Structures
1.
Amino acid sequence: MMAKKLRSPLDRTRPLRAAGQSLTDELNDAAYDHIIAPMLLALFAIVLAGLEWLRYFNDMKPNPVIYSIAAVMAILYAVYKVWHSRKRLAQIKLGRDGERVVAQYLEWFRTSSFFVFHDVPSGDANVDHVL
């Protein structure tokens, strides 16, 4: 007997978007691009420099200066990206939270036979709320 292939219900209809969905997506992207990626780069450089220093102290005659310079540069880059991203991330979070508050108030209209849609994509932009 052949097993029936299961299909996701999302294949047929797309779920409604949550209020602030675009900003949540932007926040996740910005957090990765501006915080996680630079921190991982800095961590990688620190590990490399640490390994070279370990070889240096075990008389293996490496030159850890190059890796240490790379580590310092990676740390400076990570600090710069994190420092300059804090304001933008705070703005995105504030916008997302504002959209969610407005969405909660608009839900009351559903009791009056209105349809409420949130975060409707429109080309390169989006409409936050539609009644």
2.
Amino acid sequence: EETCEILRAAYGQSGQENPGVLHCFTGGQDMAGECVRIGFYIGVGGIFTFKKSEALRKTIEEVPFERLLLETDSPFLAPEPYRGKRNEPAYVRIIAECLAQARECTLAEVGRQTSVNFDRLFRITPSRA
């Protein structure tokens, strides 16, 4: 709640579009909803794949797809089955696969949407088709 209060005070009335990302998000549905309402993106990392992260997966399923980003947090928090080992950027595919399964969509859809989200957040004009 304290985090949401700080974000509301800093960005809630600013009208600033896309103020940032909640990196390595592990909060609950209320926090995710409030942060998205303020304009933030939610970062989905290796913790999302952990066997005991059912509550986090349920929370992420409720976040609008247009507000999700994939992240590695390398060299920390490697996804299953590499948990406890050095994380590598290549493992982001595992996170994407887990997200596709949780959202009942294809890996290509996850890749496409999270790429669009990245471009929007960082104001990048995509060169991809």
3.
Amino acid sequence: MKTLSHPMILLAAAVFLLCCVSSHAADPPVKGFSLPQEVQPREGVGIAVLGYDFLLNHYRSPRDREPGDNIYIRDKKFSKAIYAHAPSELHIRLPKPATEFTATMGLHRDCEEKGLAQFMVFVNGELRFLSKPITRQTTGQAISVPLDNAKEFVLAVSDLGSDKSDHALWGTPRVQYADGTAQTVSDMLYFIQSPAENIQAPGPLPKEYIATCSRLDTTIKIWDKQTGRQLRTLTAHGHTPMHLSLSPDGKFLATAGVDASLHVWDVEAGKEICNPLLDYNGFRGPAWTTDGKNVLAVFCKDVLLIWDFQNDTLRKYPIAVEWGFRISISPDNKYLAFAGSGAYSALLDFKTGEILAKLPQENSSAAVQFSPDGNTLATAGHARKLYLWEVPTGKPLKTLSGHKEAIEILQFSPDGKTVACGCWDSAIYLWDLSSYSVIHMMRGPGGNVRGLRFTADGTQIIAAGYNDNAIRVWDVESGECVQLIHGHTALIENLDLYPK
């Protein structure tokens, strides 16, 4: 009996899969509805999807309606469209150079009343189009974006913090090719790009970006702060990152976890720059010196390590705690403070490791931070209180109560006038240090606020650790959430922001 060759077997399998798709419904396959994910190309021409609820030329179910049925932006109907739930990112890979992309963008009229989204187009890593905030009531906006003979561009939609279902549509999406021909983008095949794959968006990093990590999905991600676009996904074999910290100049990222490794990354290149530091106890709470020498302080169980990775030197200071959690280094690099498993934090001389003051608390300490001028140290933890101490004496200045749950993380505003405390009940308390009163209490959908940073101008707070795996951007003046950023498939353990 003659056996089929390997190519013939693949062809037969593909035909069988196509037949299965066709026989799934009485009607013939709908044009524009792509092949099953398992027979899609992983590379090449098509639409690479980063997101969910994605359809071509259909709204919701491709088998219940004819092509173009019920695709509306307000009262305007479209027979050709890309439907993508916000947030989403679609990498359009073309067969030849293109000169222009045109579409009408807006939210579907079935979107929830308070749905709010923003549309973006990137070409060669550069933001070419950014819409104003779009609601269900917004009339569809026709756009024309030059592509400069590119063979790939990105359509992205960001959820602007409405926390509602935002059904984004790119109506009649077309590309004009350099040779004079044209193509409807929604007629192209698509394939799903797994969030676990390393993603490298072309072009330099933006002026503001966010770094996040999750030990459960084992990824480190870099995000454009303005657009919410995912720029990098970094992974290392066996690395389950729980803690991270960006260097003051934003060039390097340190990630640590309980997987026995501490890694240092070149953020621009998306690659590790040296061999990781290894210890079976794992690492926690990395922090950088602010003198530009790129020295890292990190806990390895009950030992404080000072690692100059560029010169390959390591100092070790034993600390009388079972586990150290977080570290803060004073702006002048003279002092270091840590929060640990004991009912106190401590203030140390950075050069010698000598403990200058133990700062008692009523329960385990979890968070610590120097003020921008270096004169005050804030600590907090399971006692649900915020403690303020004088530096370097360790003299108690004030204790602030009122948090409903334990405090996981805290951060001074850039001007030192306020402190934000992230708690186990998904709440962020914003304290005014002149009146010692709460300005805002900003509550998420549930979960433990594990990452928290002020923007450099102090107008926003970036936070993560919520049950929906999203990054939230909070407006300091109003206390409202103004942006949601999705992309992690599991709980975000920590975040950092550049510029500091």
4.
Amino acid sequence: MLYAISQADLVIIPTQGSQLDANEAGRAIRVVMQSQKLAKNETPYAVLLMRTSPSIRSRTLTHIQKGLMAAGIPVFTAQLHERDAFRAVFSFQQTLDGLSPADVSNLDQVKINVWEFVEEVVVRLKEGQGVGRDQDNSSVAGVG
């Protein structure tokens, strides 16, 4: 994992909206920090909140997000919501574009949600928050 982090232009640390997951994200952040010390290279990272509700924002999630931000930990604005389409990708062995709206509900909303995340990753990379080497060879590592 340390090697993957040292080679990445941006490390994405996925976490769900529970304190147990936030604690594990903290452990992953410590691994990123350890990698930075060993490589003498600052690898940008950010926490991605996953499996969140698109309609209801829990107090626990709000508390976790505020705590991360108060600690100076970068957190993606975009969140990947809990949606059946993400499970359907594996069940039907299709990409999101290959899934049928007849088989999966809210497919258009899922695609919008994914594009919001992708756009934020691209912005972070372009702003130099994730560009450490050749920009044409950008790499992203997921830790968690």
